[in-house]
Amino acid sequence: MRVVDFLRPEAIVPSLRATNKREVLRELAARLAEVYGGVDPERLLRVLEERERLGSTAIGDGIAIPHGKLPDLEGVRGVFGRHLQGVDFESLDEKPTRLFFLLVAPEDSAGMHLKALARISRLFKDAEFRARLLEAENAEALYELIRAQEEKL
Description:
It is a single chain. By secondary structure, this protein is of the alpha/beta class. It is built from five helices and six strands. β2 and β3 form a beta hairpin. The model has no long low-confidence stretch (mean pLDDT 96).
């Protein structure tokens, strides 16, 4: 499974406007619903918030991978967002989070969901890659960086 299999170019948000965790989740959920259709953004937001109550999905190094499952979803869906200033996402390293990858999978797809999470985690391990994402000029450049980085894995 490749990230570009579940991330469309139009699902890139180069400049998140949110100022807190809930707003980031709301903005990403709205983009996912807009791009892929068939998803209620408010329902998705509730699923994401329930997951965050179990523990923050901010894994450190400025990265968060909010995720959840929805019934009746056709396949894994993703949205990538970048916040240039960073927001407090209750990260393990207590630093601002700037790179967000929202992942949603069908309710009955535990294996697919875990494979997608692992792939995203592997993608973002490279510090140089993360720095290039923060410097990219626009959504197209961000998507191309993700696509190119994935080819290296």
